[in-house]
Amino acid sequence: MHTFAPSTTITMPGTELFGTEEKKEINDVLETGILFRYNHDAQRNNIWKARDFEAEVRKFTGAKFAHAVSSGSTAVSCALAAAGVGAGDEVIVPPFTYIASVEAVLFCGALPVFAEIDETLCLSAAGIKAAITPKTKAVVLVHMCGGMAQMDEILTVCKEHKLTLVEDAGQAFGASFQGTSVGLFGKTGCYSFDFFKIATCGEGGVMVTNDEQCYKYADSYSDHGHDHIGNNRGMENHPVLGFNYRIGEMNAAIGLAQTRKVPFIREKNREYKKMLTDKLSKINGIGFSKLADPSGDSATFLNLLLPDTESAKRVVDEFNKSGVSGFNYWFTNMYHFINQWSHLKDLKSSAKLPIHLLGAPQDYNNLHLPKSQETVGRLISFGIRCTWKEEEVKALAEKISGCVEKALNPVHA
Is 62 in contact with 181 (CB distance < 8 Å)? Predict the structure, then answer.
């Protein structure tokens, strides 16, 4: 039995179910006073929340190795570093993603190359193939909006061209493709546990891999190069250079409790998403994003595809007029789609980056990505809430249906 107390004020997926379980894990840490994830063995009374959080992620995803860090963004940085991606490497990235995926490429010294997405909302195999140059080293594949990319086709392209695959599954914890968790197809992968995800640490992320050496690199890279061998931090060796991306025990404690709830959250999300899609699939003009493996959907988003961009804009206007909330129109979103990334297109930075010295591989102000523009222009995404009641789901379906029908079939006087 689940005894979670649904929140009535917070609309983020993880913190919909926030209560005694999280408090218990936090109190374990407070009782020891050891907020640091490493060392202090005698004082911590065998309380190791970061380790337990990582073990829970391994158990849930099937990853051989998991390393928790301070954010999903730093998890991407660790994944790139551990996979050997660095200065001067061309890295294929999507134009539709939380911008951290691209920032991580820039800040490791690599050079982003934008490629096309398709109706999966992820990079397509064809898009990746068209963007490959002799300098291409890697692909950062972002699994967007709770779904997954067409992994079989993408793996074929990466293998054929000897490309390193790094997966950013920040929005897709709980998703899978043909039985394997997203994040585990590439050399390294990562998840986000920030405030807006299916489970949260408040701030946190996890890098995963099935490669032991990649794990060791990430473990050291995220903590100033420490090898974490022995119980005297001041005498540890440093096999590589690193920086501070550590997670604290308090954040890890929350992530531990939250991760245990993901199977229940996903089950309810899938139930309510099916109710919505069953109703909305009968409405002319409503389509849905493609799920490469429908059985692996994390179901955190209902992703509607309207006939074209102008139709989608009319629907958004109708939603706003009718008081419908809880959706994103990504085409005009300031930090998930390249159209609004003027600072990136102009490479505005407080200090020089390697890309300023090496030169950008594309003219970011004049990219030709018609498929991505068309797909994101049609896309409206609703967040799925596991705490909904059935009558709320039915009411939302009716509201969406009514607004779409009114927007696409206006009555002319």
Answer: yes
What are phi and psi for residue 358, nearest 5 degrees? -90, -25
Q: Using DSSP, state whether 172 is helix, strand or coil.
A: coil
Q: Which two tokens stand for residue 46?
A: 């065998």
Counted residue by residue, the chain has a size of 413
Pairwise CA distance, residues 23 & 174, whole Å? 23
Calpha distance 302→47 (Å, rounded):
39
68 has which bridge partners? 206
Residue 246 three-state SS: strand
**Opening angle at CA 177, ends 73 and 127, nearest 5:** 70
Per residue in 162-214, pLDDT (tens digit) is 999 999 999 999 999 999 999 999 999 999 999 999 999 999 999 999 999 99
Residue 386, both tokens: 């596991």
* CA distances (Å), origin 189, targets 101, 104, 164, 260, 379: 12, 13, 11, 20, 26
Single-letter code of the amino acid located at 241 = L
**Secondary structure (DSSP) of 352-367:** --HHHHH--SS-GGG-
The sign of the CA dihedral 334, 336, 338, 341 is: positive
Q: What is the pTM of this model?
A: 0.95
